[in-house]
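Troubleshooting: if your tokenizer reports a length mismatch, compare your output against this known-good record of 220 residues.
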Amino acid sequence: MNQHPGILGKKLGMTQFFDEKGEVVRCTVVHAGCVVVAKRTQEKDGYSALVLGLGERKEKHTNKPLAGIYKKAGQTPKRLLKEIRLPAEEVAKYEVGEKVAVDKVFKVGQFVDAQGRTRGRGFTGVMRRWSFAGGVGSHGTHEYFRHGGSIGTNMTPGRTLPGLKMPGHYGDETVTILNLKIAKLIPEDDLVLVEGGIPGAKNTIITLRGAVKKRGGVKA
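Known-good structure output:
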């Protein structure tokens, strides 16, 4: 489990800028600004974590149990709530109601893992969904150009095995991209510029956390 510090943010889109070498850096812009709504501690809850809130929600659209949590924290209702597991020493650095500053969590050059929800593409065939080659286009073939081919055997085992790649709902799933680099931080606007692409359309909720498979987390 990734227990590196991180943030919640909204994907604003993509842009580019020139670095000190004059090279173009293509990056995704993530707007952070999440707030600590509650804390989980080892003594009380059996684990340590921060409960982060992002965006604003109207009070009339907030149910009473959630409204009580926000009132206790002294916060206005948030559109999104999410827990991120952290070591106890990291949780102790934050207070309830504190805004998570991007420059407190990340630094330029650090590697991060970005998680988002991909675009939904509806019901698709095997060629688009699984990159199948399709059937042959000659030797009398007709009506099977984009089919997946055989899906099982005749006698043994005499059934279609589970997990077979077939047509179906494509996209609209949670995807994590590992080892993306922080290209730029703009703390005054709560913006994080991440080199490369991040899953999801504009306004998708993104979770950015320190890379779990990079030692040190900063490029040498």
